[in-house]
Design brief:
about 1100 residues, alpha+beta, 6-stranded mixed sheet, about 30% helix, elongated
Length: about 1100
């Protein structure tokens, strides 16, 4: 089993082994006290006073070493190390004038003990009955080995011998838990007759003594885990004893130590062996060094204290521990090592170093580095330790930032999934805050991990999970490649599904948003920073031939490889530059124009010539937290259309020269090309004056009169479009636009557009067969703003160059972080200055860009998040580069700097969380909304105004074919509508039309070609004529025109039309005629609609 998998052996039992004997009764023992030289003396002590002015900690290794270097392999590395030593002397100073070092009293090394690989697979307690007892843990690993202290001194008589090298111990390493469970069992299966009372054999007992100073013991049973053995939060070990006996005789007491490493990412833990003398605490040191501060109690001053260092990884073999003071060392090939030192007086301190060394070619722990130990007493104050006065507050800030990151990103992912499932199109409102939060947190996690000073170590460590560190280049690049591969795969699947769904000819008519490069260009900024970090780091490593994270690894300078890898971030910068100039030329050549939306300050960038139609932008919900803007809307592409061209002028007093992206254009008019010829510009949207001053056709043109008489809702969607290839859309895809006549208009659902256009094509005349859908400016989609460069024209952006600036900014940040560890140790002073010059230029350009071009986003909250992220990045640089070379700030100032670093990083996360939560709630509620609710949220003009009435229009075939279709469309009608119904069967005398219930939305049939077909000279009169009534049955429907317009009834009177519909039921026909005639005579401007249900009609 796994819990017994660690190889070791204990030879204590009924017969005394060579390293164990009967020590006596445990209640008389005080194993934490030693009468002799229990541990090898390492450091003497001078009681000279410490100057308060120079109490900063002495750093026993340079900044160069603290980054992981342990051996210089080249002249460049040696020079860098020398420069690092000099910088450390200036930057960090010494630990204080009270630091004194004396030679070791004894330098004899302990003989190496045998490694665990050479011993049996389980720890065995000899039971003395022909078998042994396996000793293990359910949640850790154990071994049998001599104590950690030197064997130079005499063994204390009558003592358990805890920690002493002459005494064999059971040492167990607890893995990731605070409670241990011991599990023991015979090494072979025993029959019931031989198992004894507790499963270990006849008369054999095994117990734990949890407190060494008491008589209390815990009996153990074979194959049953023990009770929990807890270890307190502030302790790194617990000392117990394993008691074995045979027939209550020959009691054996084996020291048993359970230990754990308190700081998860450290491989060594240090503690007093006698907890009454003091406590050691982990305190991250300057420039990422690893330090323990051991503080002795007042009672321990001037007394000798024993210390023990634990190293779980050293149990794997090939490793050894070394304790260093100046030129004196003690080494041991073991997972623990002990030493003795005298606790200094107040205002004095001692220091020594514990190192983990790799033996031979084993480099698994090559990047661990050294662990600094500072020993002080009582309330001695160190300048170094002053930085940690509020470390719990710092750690709390780090945990808050980490938690906020997890919650915000999780909410964003959930919101994105819900939008994919519940909405027919993407909503881009998340993009700004998500992109801002990602780059600021990536930058923080990388720079803080490498360069944050002790005060902020806990802050930086909380964010290490967000991304691999820069030196893990292959991991980062592999992750980025997988991300882009997933984007391209998803893109290909969507394109394939579109072609399969829409059939023949759809391959050449795919929406611009699906062209190759559209998705990839949007995804590129998300990987720009990590790719730049990884490639810049790899390039610098090849150029300098050093690895700041693993000096033991041989690295040869390879300039060709460095240049080759360095081309990757340069290629990203080239992409940013190329896109910038492409967008610039689009404005300069007036291919793309910025249109000022009517009754709004929002500017929309559209192609001057557009050939595809989006649905009317629709917000899934409403909220007062953010101002309404198109970035919160979805608008899937519903159809390819005949080209429409913007022919409007610039706004008066427009800001910007001709051809500039700042130039603002009026929203219309627009002209279309139908049948290969250009049509006149539409007069919709208040452009009548413009047309009259420049039109070839003049005021008398029938088309002008017709268009100006259309409803106000159509005037708010003034662009007449002619669908040429309509797409199959889902029921929730929104509304493609409006259609109508001067007396009514209809909202066209995207899901019904294809069927309605095909119905119009059934009409005879080819010249009159085109459909017309009235749309607004946001619905126009061209190959530039909606296609490959669509990422530069997102509805949430106010500046079309934001994408290029964002990409370049992230690449420069990545180059800075990736090359910083190498340039800091370059021999050239110019190269060492490059990182600070680079980051200063990056932040300066960002500030200048925002000042000149303006804030890049439409939403104020997105701009707040961006500015906060820039402040957070600047504070990260300050804390990493400035504080790393000074210790003059007190804990209050340092805590304030931490807050100033964390709060700006939290703001983008808060904005992202709020945005994602809003979108997630909208996505969940959207499928439950009715068509009328969606209509009111989509078309603001869709509400009852004056004598305008809302109704449902069942599509009644065409003017020539009156059969009903399955489509019912919402409509608004100018004249007053009177709704009646007749329910069959009924007695002839009671065939009477009754008004429908108040509040019920009535239905009125409408031929599809009447409201959808393009208006022409032959159809102006038909479209303008208002019917006097309509009849709707279960199978057919007809509009009825007055006798003045009998041509629209097929050259017969409206009464004859009713008679033809009800020729088999004259009674019902007469009731219909009577009702229509009475209402028409009472009000000739109203329309009477009678719906007949039941019977055979």
């Amino acid at each position: 089993p796994k819990r017994f998998s660690r190889p070791f052996k204990v030879t204590t039992g009924a017969t005394a082994g060579p390293h164990s004997g009967t020590r006596g009764v445990l209640e008389t023992l005080d194993p934490m006290a030693s009468d002799g030289e229990g541990c090898q003396p390492l450091i003497g002590m001078s009681d000279g006073p410490t100057s308060p002015q120079s109490s900063a900690p002495y750093l026993s290794k340079s900044v160069y070493e603290s980054l992981g270097f342990r051996r210089a392999r080249s002249l460049g590395a040696a020079l860098a190390a020398a420069a690092g030593v000099s910088l450390a002397a200036v930057a960090a100073g010494g630990i204080g004038s009270g630091s004194t070092r004396q030679p070791l009293r004894e330098t004899t090394m302990d003989a190496p003990i045998s490694l665990v690989e050479t011993q049996p697979p389980v720890c065995k307690l000899m039971a003395g009955a022909g078998h042994a007892i396996d000793f293990g843990m359910t949640d850790g690993r154990c071994m049998h080995l001599p104590g950690p202290c030197s064997a130079a001194g005499p063994t204390p008589a009558g003592k358990l011998g805890l920690w002493h090298a002459d005494t064999h111990h059971i040492l167990c390493f607890l893995e990731g838990e605070k409670e241990a469970h011991v599990l023991v069992k015979p090494d072979k299966e025993l029959s019931p007759a031989l198992s004894g009372d507790w499963g270990f054999g006849p008369g054999v007992n095994v117990s734990l003594r949890p407190e060494l100073k008491t008589r209390a013991i815990w009996g153990l049973q074979a194959n049953v885990p023990s009770l929990e053995i807890p270890i307190s939060d502030d302790s790194s070990f617990r000392a117990l004893a394993v008691v074995t006996s045979k027939d209550n005789q020959n009691v054996r007491d084996v020291p048993f130590v359970i230990t754990r490493v308190r700081k998860e990412d450290w491989s060594v833990d240090v503690q007093f062996t006698d907890k009454t003398l003091g406590e050691c605490s982990a305190r991250p040191g300057s420039s990422n060094s690893q330090r323990f501060v051991c503080r002795g109690s007042i009672q321990a001053i001037a007394k000798s204290a024993d210390f023990v260092a634990f190293c779980p990884n050293c149990a794997e073999g090939g490793m050894k521990l070394k304790v260093v003071n100046g030129d004196e060392t003690i080494e041991k090939h073991a997972p623990w090592i002990g030493w003795r030192a005298k606790v200094p007086n107040i205002n004095n301190h001692l220091e020594f170093t514990v190192s983990v060394l790799a033996a031979g070619q084993d480099r698994r722990l090559a990047a661990i580095g050294d662990f600094e130990i500072v020993l002080v007493s009582g309330q001695t104050s160190l300048a170094m330790e002053g930085l940690y006065a509020d470390y719990r507050f710092i750690e709390g800030c780090g945990n808050l930032l980490s938690t906020a990151t997890i919650v915000s990103f999780f909410t964003a992912i959930v919101a994105g999934a819900l939008m994919l499932l519940c909405l027919p199109g993407p909503v881009v409102a998340q993009i700004p805050s998500f992109s801002t939060a990602v780059v600021s947190l990536h930058f923080f996690s990388h720079l803080a991990f490498q360069y944050f000073d002790p005060q902020m170590q806990d802050l930086s460590e909380s964010m290490r999970w967000i991304m691999p560190q820069p030196h893990e280049s292959m991991t980062i690049l592999l992750g980025c490649a997988m991300f882009m591969g997933a984007v391209m795969l998803a893109h290909g699947i969507v394109v394939f599904a579109f072609i399969v769904k829409n059939g023949k000819g759809s391959g050449s008519e795919i929406p611009h948003s699906l062209v190759f490069g559209a998705w990839e260009l949007r995804a590129l900024p998300l990987i720009a920073y990590p790719v730049a970090v990884a490639t810049a780091s790899a390039s610098a490593r090849s150029w300098f031939g050093i690895d700041p994270w693993d000096r033991d690894t041989q690295n040869n300078s390879n300039m060709f490889l460095a240049i080759l890898i360095g081309l990757v971030p340069l290629a990203l910068l080239h992409v940013a530059s190329h896109v910038f100039w492409q967008v610039y030329n689009l404005f300069h050549d007036e291919i793309v124009v910025g249109v000022q939306l009517r009754n709004s300050q929002e500017v929309l960038y559209v192609d001057r010539n557009s050939d595809q139609l989006r649905a009317i932008p629709q917000q899934p919900g409403e909220s007062s937290l953010w101002s309404a803007c198109l970035g919160w809307s979805f608008a899937p592409t519903v159809s390819a259309i005949a080209d429409v061209a913007h022919s409007g002028p610039q706004n008066h007093g427009a800001n910007g020269a001709l051809g500039s992206w700042r130039t603002r254009w009026q929203p219309g008019p627009w002209s279309s090309r139908q049948g290969g010829r250009a049509t006149r510009p539409s007069v919709l949207g208040g452009n009548t004056a413009l047309l009259r001053s420049g039109s070839r056709l003049g005021e008398e043109d029938a088309g002008v009169t017709y268009e100006t008489s259309l409803t106000s809702a159509i005037h708010m969607h003034p662009i007449p479009t002619a669908p040429t290839f309509t797409y199959k859309m889902s029921a929730n895809s929104g509304f493609a636009g409006l259609a109508g006549t001067p007396w009514m208009h209809v909202a066209i659902p995207g899901s019904a557009l294809k069927a309605l256009c095909e119905g119009v094509r059934l009409e005879a005349s080819p010249n009159e067969s085109e459909s017309t859908v009235y749309a607004g400016v946001p619905q126009m989609s061209g190959k530039n703003t909606g296609g490959r460069f669509g990422a530069c024209f997102e509805w949430c952006d106010s500046c079309p160059f934001r994408w290029s600036a964002d990409l370049a900014f992230k690449v420069f940040l990545g180059i800075y972080v990736g090359t910083l560890p190498y340039l800091n140790f370059a021999t050239s002073a110019t190269l060492r200055m490059m990182p600070n010059v680079l980051i200063s230029l990056i932040l300066l350009l960002a500030i200048v860009g925002i000042s000149v071009a303006g804030l890049p986003y439409v939403q104020k909250m997105d701009n707040v998040a961006l500015v906060a992220a820039l402040v957070g990045i600047a504070m990260t640089v300050f804390n990493a580069q400035v504080l790393m070379s000074t210790s003059v700030f007190g804990p209050t100032v340092m805590s304030a700097l931490v807050v100033l670093n964390v709060v700006p990083l939290l703001i983008p996360l808060i904005v992202l969380f709020a945005t994602s939560l809003r979108l997630a709630l909208w996505a969940l509620s959207f499928p439950r909304q009715s068509m009328v609710e969606r209509l009111h949220k989509t078309i603001k003009e869709w509400e009852r105004q004056g004598d305008t009435y809302t109704m449902i229009v069942p599509v009644a075939g065409t003017s020539k074919f009156s059969s009903l279709s399955k489509h019912e469309l919402p409509a608004m009608v100018r004249p007053k509508i009177r709704h009646f119904d007749i329910k069959l069967p009924c007695a002839p005398a009671s065939t009477i039309a009754h008004p429908i219930k108040e509040g019920t939305v009535g239905r009125m049939p409408m031929p599809v070609d009447l409201f959808m077909a393009t208006a022409g000279k032959k159809t102006y009169d038909l479209k303008s004529a208002q019917p006097i009534g309509a009849v709707l049955t279960d199978a057919k429907a007809r509009l009825l025109y007055s006798d003045e317009h009998k041509a629209f009834n097929g050259d017969v009177s409206w009464a004859e039309v009713v008679g033809q519909l009800f020729n088999a039921d004259r009674t019902t026909g007469e009731a219909v005629k009577k009702t229509i005639l009475e209402k028409y005579q009472a009000d000739k401007q109203s329309i009477t609609v009678i719906e007949v249900t039941g019977g055979s009609r």
